[in-house]
Amino acid sequence: MDQQTILNIIPDIEYDELVLVLNITRDMNEQQQQQFLFSYRHKRKSRNEMLLLTLLGFVGVAGVQRFVMGDIALGIIYFLTGGLCLVGTIIDLIKINSLTMSYNQRQAYETASLISAAYQNPQRF
User: Fold this and answer.
1) Is residue 115 part of a domain?
2) pLDDT tens digits for 56-80?
3) Neighbour tally for 16: CB within 10 Å
4) Is residue 125 domain-resident?
5) Would residue 11 count as lying in a domain?
6) What is the pTM for the complete model shown?
């Protein structure tokens, strides 16, 4: 699979994420790569989407970005403390790139393992 195909399916993909996807799909056949890309496209979050969710903390709804990333306990703490008095929200704004990349990386590996499991044991799915 080449970069142009990935960019056609996921147009807002970041460079680091593109490299990750190329490495993950390197050993997959064409059909697995297509299934991976279509599944991963729906699971991943864009940096702008995470930025907007984090900015909700400044209007009184702090922690939504943490709920979306799966950090439920931290999301509850942020929600009840106003984003730890906005300090946690500001730190999340500063770290938005790494938070988004970390989330997308987990989703990519999870999607790859699901695709791999489906092709190794097709009778179970």
Assistant:
1) yes
2) 999 989 999 999 999 999 999 999 9
3) 13
4) no
5) yes
6) 0.86
